[in-house]
Amino acid sequence: AVPQRIVASSEVERSYIMIKPDGVQRGLVGEIISRFEKKGFLLKGLKLFQCPKDLAQEHYKDLKDKPFFPKLIDYITSGPVVCMAWEGAGVVASARKLIGATNPLQAEPGTIRGDLAVQTGRNVVHGSDSPDNGKREIELWFKEGELCQWESVQAPWLIE
Ligand code: UDP
Ligand code: MG
């Protein structure tokens, strides 16, 4: 039998990963999801979603005084995004590495932004910057019941 790892969800690290409207428009949804899947994190929530302005403003509230804030809100609400909750020990920092630097021209080749984007204002994907923000953002973007409780059959082959 597959051993069941019983872990209260509050102890499990989660990152909120979002494919931004440019990633959706450019047909990069499969490519981006695939990178997190192949790495070995567990997908707990996934939806295509048209983000309202107030939610975008709340999500990026720490940046509200930056000069680029209005353009950022226009960008994030300009078309559907793909909202994801990914789970696993170390997922927040690891996802940031997979995503690469904020400016895609500075992002290393092999990262999502390094391979697939050229401008900070069109950098195709978001990833939470701390486990606390991972929790906050997943609660902000997903409603009760939208996350799935499941175990991957790969778990014993990923975690010893
Ligand atoms: N952003 C921008 N211009 C800037 C800095 C940031 O348009 O000079 C946008 C960009 O889409 C970035 C988002 O604001 O991804 C959030 O900025 P943050 O510094 O949190 O970067 P991230 O965590 O996404 O790498
Ligand atoms: Mg950030």
UniProtKB/TrEMBL annotation:
Keywords: ATP-binding, Kinase, Nucleotide-binding, Transferase. It comes from the Eukaryota. One of its GO terms (molecular function) is ATP binding. The active site is at H126. GO terms for biological process: CTP biosynthetic process; GTP biosynthetic process; UTP biosynthetic process. It catalyses: a ribonucleoside 5'-diphosphate + ATP = a ribonucleoside 5'-triphosphate + ADP; a 2'-deoxyribonucleoside 5'-diphosphate + ATP = a 2'-deoxyribonucleoside 5'-triphosphate + ADP. Its cofactor is Mg(2+). Residues 12-149 form the Nucleoside diphosphate kinase-like domain. ATP binds at K20, F68, R96, T102, R113, N123. Its EC number is 2.7.4.6. Belongs to the NDK family. This is Nucleoside diphosphate kinase. It comes from Zea mays (Maize).
